Amino acid sequence: MTVPRTRVHLHPVRLRLGLILAIAILAGSNLVSNRVLTGLAYVPWNLAVAALLIVVARRCGLSWADLGLQNRRLRKGLLVGAVAASLVVLIYTIGWALPATRSAFADQRAAGSVQTLLFAALIQIPLGTVLLEEIAFRGVLPALFGGERFWPTALASSALFGLWHVLPSFGVTAANAAMGATIGGIGLLAQTVLVVLAMTGAGMLLMVYRRWGGHLVSPMIAHVATNSLGVLIAWLVITHT
Q: How far apart are CA 146 and CA 77, in angstroms?
């Protein structure tokens, strides 16, 4: 991740206060999203939180380039994102084609009508999930951490990304029989730790895409491909078996 020279003039205290505020906003939003909001409120809430995080970052003196939103790198970002999405398609296609791994896609959370599927894949995931998570964990937080050193910054923001998934992970073994059979007997605490570690690793990969592409659009495309295509395959497995 290239850091503009103007970063050296940013006030470290302002960055630290901005970081604390951003983490507090995300913690509150995570609780609201997973324990309070229902249905259609999810997307506008997360869009508002994403906008608020950008305001915080800009008030701290961060540039659009710091956040991975500079126009001049958009083309390369799109290319890297397309390559990452192609890898997701390849892996998912192989997983779906093999009987031994197909059951891993049978997640009951994807059950529902075609309209529900399309809303989840085309609106809820891209606008309600991916946009906020990429702006937060691959854009705002790395910049507020002080992003001059890529790997420590990537690890810190990815660890928070892993913790972000603690509440959504509750009940996942009940919804996914294959996952339940694999880790369902190890206890809730161990399951949660595994989810956090797995999502920290996923966050690191998305940070690498951000670095390669030089733009947030790279991990956004990869993230949408992973989640939306995963929901589609889960729906197909559930409804056609």
A: 22
DSSP letters of 192-238?
HHHHHHHHHHHHHHHHHHHHHHSSTHHHHHHHHHHHHHHHHHHHHHH
Which of 224, 193, 223 shows the shortest CA–CA distance to 208? 223
Burial string for 151-179 (b: 16+ CB within 10 Å, else e) reads eebbebbbbbbbbbbeeebeebbeebebb
C-alpha to C-alpha distance for 168 and 165, rounded to whole angstroms: 5
DSSP state of 148: S
pTM of the model: 0.90
Render pLDDT for 146-172 as a digit per residue (tens, 0 to 9): 867 899 999 999 999 999 999 988 765
Q: Which pLDDT score is estimated for 74? A: 97
Write the DSSP assignment of 106-128 as a string of letters.
Answer: -BGGG-S-HHHHHHIIIIIIIII
Q: What are phi and psi of 107, to 5 degrees?
A: -100, 115
Residues sharing a CB contact under 8 Å with residue 85, sequence separation 6 or more, in sequence order: 221, 222, 224, 225
pLDDT along the chain (241 residues), means of 10: 50 93 98 90 97 98 96 96 98 91 78 88 97 99 89 97 91 51 63 92 98 98 97 86 66
DSSP of 50-102: HHHHHHHHHHTT--TTTTT--GGGHHHHHHHHHHHHHHHHHHHHHHHHSHHHH
